[in-house]
Amino acid sequence: MNTESTMQFAFSLIATPTPHDQIVASIANPVFGRVFTDHMATVRWTSALGWHDAKIEARRPFQIDPACAVLHYAQEIFEGMKAYRGEDNSVSLFRPFENAKRFRASAERMSMAELPDALFVGAVESLVKVDRDWVPGGDGSLYLRPFMFATETFLGVRASSEYLFCVIASPVGPYFKAGKTAVTVWVSDRYTRAALGGTGAAKCGGNYAAGLSAQTEASANGCDQVVFLDAAEHKWIEELGGMNVFFVMDDGSLRTPPLSGTILPGITRASIIELAKREGIVVSEEPYAFETWQADAISGRVREAFACGTAAVVTAIGAVRHAAGEFTIGDGGEGPVTQRIRATLTGIQRGKIADPFGWIHHVA
Predict the structure, then answer these.
(1) What angle do the packed helices 267-278 and 336-349 form, to 10 degrees?
(2) Distance between CA 97 and CA 94 in Å, rounded?
(3) Can you tell me the distance from the alpha carbon of 264 to that of 262, in angstroms, rounded to the nearest whole number?
């Protein structure tokens, strides 16, 4: 991991702040992804100049040519991360260099320019400093969306020679409906998200676009999220539409699908594995068949299941629906292991619990 100083990259600043009272009103009860802060960070890359023109400026629409490469060949990647306000009014990021590392891996897979880790974190940190007043307290957070796309005006099929990296921010509350302790998921038998050799491990927009039909199908069946199975056998559980998944077994151990190249290596997932192992919980990363999950849930061998990710954090799965029926996990609510893991993780993120891992990155 590149841990060089985030301060070696200077961002020019054009500040256009919203009055404080309007910010307070905007972040009081925001709908996820609908309210945005005043500014954005941008950095450009060209094959001739490399990374240059770093700015913090007013958030505004982009002007791109109709022949812009991203519109035709989908060279685009993104990240999701959060800034938190502590009880002492401090603001911090959670494992930002892990996001930077994954962003580079996504760029490599999509044949895009690789952004240095320090520049990635520096851009995020610079934006948070300028828009610090937009970071909610309490259970809210500032969702950060770093992304990059091809900007070359060219219709030939090859990697672009120009890219724009940008970071925008959105104050958010819970991802799922407030007060909902467990979600219902739909297991798709029609659609797959990714296959071996594809882009499943990259955080690119195409993966999410490919899953939208399945998510629509899930919604039509009264479900909050979709569960994808593997593309080859349509048997093995992989991940949800935008989240990884864990199972709590009757012996207290955790089980989660392995990183085989077809699912996203979630930072929340990795953090949960580290937390669990520190607490003496056995964690197995191995394939798990949907039919086995159903049988284990009915027999009681699976006591709990939960989804995890930056947006959802840790969310219990209460019921599972599929074309042939439905089954319940445990009592259909949030179990004690899920609750404990969520409380510990969010406690570290918000500074309420000591961070023994060095995950918290304070914003000066």
Answers:
(1) 110
(2) 9
(3) 7
361 lies in some domain:
no
280: left (phi over 0), alpha (psi -120 to 50) or beta: left
Contacts 24+ apart (CB under 8 A), 23-27: 23/133, 23/134, 26/134, 26/171, 27/134, 27/136, 27/140, 27/171
> Is 211 found in the same domain as 129?
no
Instruction: State the total domains in the chain.
Output: 2
pLDDT at 292: 98
Region of 95 on the Ramachandran plot (φ > 0 left; ψ -120 to 50 alpha; else beta): left
Single out the residue in 145, 173, 201 at which a domain terminates: 173
Q: For residues 75 and 150, is the Cβ–Cβ distance under 8 A?
A: yes
Which residues partner with 328 through β-bridges?
319
Cβ-Cβ contacts under 8 Å for 250 (sequence gap 6 or more): 300, 301, 302, 303
User: 320: which strand partners?
Assistant: 185, 327
Q: Which two tokens stand for residue 275?
A: 């937390």
Q: The tokens of 342 are what?
A: 């969520």
Q: What is the DSSP string of 67-90?
A: TBHHHHH--EEE--EEEEE-TTS-
Exposure letters 47-62 (e unless 16+ CB within 10 A, then b): eeeebeebbbbebeee
> Environment class of residue 139 by beta-carbon count within 10 Å: exposed (0-12), middle (13-18) or buried (19+)?
exposed
Of 76, 100, 78, nearest in space to 9 by CA: 100
Q: What is the pLDDT of residues 116-130, one digit of tens each?
A: 999 999 999 999 999
Confidence of residue 177 (pLDDT cuts 50, 70, 90): low
Q: How far apart are CA 164 and CA 149, in angstroms?
A: 6
**Does 86 lie in the same domain as 225?**
no
How many beta carbons lie within 10 A of that of residue 262, not counting itself? 24
Report if pTM > 0.85.
yes
Instruction: Report the CATH number that the domain containing residue 290 is assigned in CATH.
Output: 3.20.10.10
Residue ranges making up the domain that contains 129: 6-173
- Where is 213: in which H helix or E strand? helix 212-220
Q: Which residue has the tokens 């009264």?
A: 222
